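Explain my protein.
***
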Amino acid sequence: MFDGPMLLEPLEPSDVDWFLSASEERILDRDTTLITAGERVETLYLVLHGVLGVDAPAEDQRLAVLGPGDIAGEMSLLEDRIPTETVTALEETKVLALPHAAIEKRCRASAEFGVRFYRALARLMSQRLQRANRRLAVAPGDKAAASDSGWSQLVDSLQGFKALLHEADQAARRNEDVVPGELAEKAVGAFRQLLPKMNEVADAAGDERLCAEIGLRAQAELLPYLMLAESAERFYSKPRGYAGDFWSIELMYRNVPNGTSRLGPLIDRCFLEAPPCAAVRNRRGLLAEEIGATIAGREGMPAAITSLACGPAAEAFDVIESLDDPDRVKFTLLDIDLQALAYVADRRDRLKLRKSIELVAENLIHLALGRSQTRIEGQDLVYSIGLIDYFDDALVVKLMNLVHGMLRPGGRIILGNFHPRNPARAFSNLVIEWGLIHRTEEDMNRLYAASHFARPCTAVRFEEQEINLFAECVKT
């Protein structure tokens, strides 16, 4: 989802202004073909929201799913070749379309722009190549390479977990397809013990290639099982273009294990009870507390509160339902995902809360870069709980600067981020491919100090698992 900032970030503000002015927005209906295999492509496309599927017609195979921030049409720009893939909108999708001819003309007029633009493209392509290389790593049967990479240290834990799953499946066959409780508890415990072991081995590898190899091997061992679990399958498949979409978060909130076959619900339980999913549930309550404190601090005056990348916005509904008067708060909920906003709008309207909740469809990357017309001011609290884990430091600082302008004096920003002590850090990034950036308290202090807030965090809280931090800063 977040390759978009990689394309825009190295550009100067004037470059981004040109990029936006020279391109046009297009809205694609579901099943609309954007790029056809065998036909020349003369446009670069940047996905703003929605999902595109990349298919190889000759092999009848889906090669990739592109979400917000991803680009298409770049290979024809770089190589002037006819594509062999077809790109189709999997749902209503909005893209920015920038003609190749316009890019080439701009590069001829400004060599400096050309350097920055193609460096950004090279950086993006490098990231894609790294992901492809991980999938082409040494085959799991290569014992010498496995030993060198530290893979052998994980074998016992992985095989122990898989043996328990096999035992559970055999027992379920004799028990009307239900896994006995004792065996289920053992499997959940074995999975929980496996996660920090993966961290230990990945950290000890000390080399990105070896770490990627470990992840690929673990993925090959576990993926057939994880695909039986409803939540794990969604997180890996990323049908909305990224792991933490609104419905994935809702599945974690609901915490109802589900899946296919006899083992699916058990494996889903292993996943849903893992520390990261528990932390997501915990942060909902923590945020409700912080929102409640903001409302109480207004002493009867309505509190203005904004959520960036709101997802299902469960914490907002929790707070409103706890109030004697919903007019005590006005939420502004922003998200780029129209399905997320539609989901929230349906719940809002059923509860008759239109006065308390305003929904805004907005690309937060454009907003942070100052390329949007949306203006929000005078806020008492602005928060985001699942966004900056995907943003590099430079973009986080831009987001902080944006929020600084949204807050009234004395208003607060709260940003959530996973901490490096997350026991499922390696599993999340290497097996499920979440791609999270983990940060410490010191990291958040440094970022706030580099922003318009110009000071360290005024407070840092952790949810009960102590792996999801919430860094607060007050606007003076």
